[in-house]
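Q: Please design a sequence for this.
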């Protein structure tokens, strides 16, 4: 078929067979990429339970009960061996010799497991569980962190596990903040009495107060300003 050229020719080039085939190759590549993406398995409630799951068990010992609780979170590996491989929580179990909390623990584990299998962002469970308060009062766990209830500590375990598998990113302090807190700690320890600098249960000074941000007894007053040695929160901004 002849093509009429109505404008002046200013330049020309010869198109090779390889260059002619490039658009087709690019289109095929896009098609293959779209096909591979469409085959990605996402977490949903109809996903069948595999025969084997990876599990992690955490021990929870509180002053509220004589026996410890053992929280087991089982994870499923999605798209194993591919670039879309993900590890997501699938179910949770809580075992203990203490039968006082049997009913609500079974109910809680079933609800949490159902939320896990639903898919999507399940990290909201952590804050929901942490916000549960015991009307009889909470307790301090080893390290000086305050737990408002047993349910809140279960939420703490869920948070620890989600950080372990990468669903929640650690909010680490930068180098400047770490140096600042170390300097504050050294100044406070130098000013305090040697026998009162630390306790057996906490690595923070004995006179430290409870931080409202991280619930840890690590808030000290230095230079007229309340500063948390654990998370870096400061009343002076």
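A: Design:
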């Amino acid at each position: 078929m002849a093509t009429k050229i109505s404008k002046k020719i200013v330049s020309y080039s010869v198109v090779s067979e390889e260059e002619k085939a490039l658009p087709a190759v690019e289109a095929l590549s896009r098609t293959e990429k779209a096909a591979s993406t469409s085959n990605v398995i996402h977490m949903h409630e109809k996903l069948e339970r595999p025969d084997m799951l990876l599990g992690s068990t955490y021990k929870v010992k509180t002053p509220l009960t004589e026996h410890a609780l053992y929280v087991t979170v089982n994870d499923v590996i999605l798209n194993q061996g591919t670039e879309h491989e993900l590890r997501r929580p699938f179910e949770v179990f809580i075992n203990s010799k203490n039968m006082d909390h049997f009913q609500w623990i079974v109910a809680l584990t079933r609800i949490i497991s159902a939320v896990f299998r639903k898919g999507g962002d399940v990290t909201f469970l952590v804050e929901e569980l942490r916000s549960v308060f015991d009307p009889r009062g909470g307790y301090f766990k080893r390290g000086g962190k305050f737990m408002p209830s047993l349910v809140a500590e279960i939420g703490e375990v869920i948070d620890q596990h989600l950080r372990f598998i990468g669903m929640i990113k650690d909010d680490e302090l930068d180098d400047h903040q770490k140096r600042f807190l170390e300097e504050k700690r050294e100044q406070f320890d130098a000013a305090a009495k040697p026998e009162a600098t630390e306790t057996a249960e906490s690595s923070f000074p004995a006179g430290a107060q409870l931080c409202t941000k991280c619930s840890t007894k690590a808030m000290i007053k230095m230079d007229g300003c309340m500063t948390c040695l654990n998370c870096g929160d400061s009343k002076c901004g």
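Q: Thanks. Anything notable?
A: Strands lie at 54-60, 69-78, 86-96, 139-140, 146-147, 209-210, 217-222, 225-228. Residues 17-38 form the longest helix (22 residues).
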